[in-house]
Write a structure and sequence with these properties.
There is one protein chain. This protein is an all-alpha fold. The chain is 79% helix and 0% strand. The protein has helices at 6-31, 36-57. The chain is elongated, with a radius of gyration of 14 Å. The termini are close together. It comes from Clostridium luticellarii. This is Coat F domain protein.
């Protein structure tokens, strides 16, 4: 893979941060939720955000 330029690196950093924030929010919502269906939605959303963050971080290697 080719080297990332400064703009791409900055965009990647922004996307990783956004997915990390989404993960943290979904985890917080999950902790405060009682409805099993809604809880399941937040759990899947948190997992998806974490997975995407990890995929984005792989571009840094």
């Amino acid at each position: 893979m080719s080297q990332l330029n400064q703009q791409e690196l900055q965009n990647l950093r922004h996307l990783i941060g956004a997915h990390d924030t989404a993960y943290e929010k979904m985890q917080a919502y999950l902790q405060n939720c009682t409805d099993p269906e809604v809880k399941s939605y937040f759990q899947k959303s948190a997992q998806d955000a974490q997975k995407t963050k990890q995929q984005l971080m792989s571009f840094l290697n």
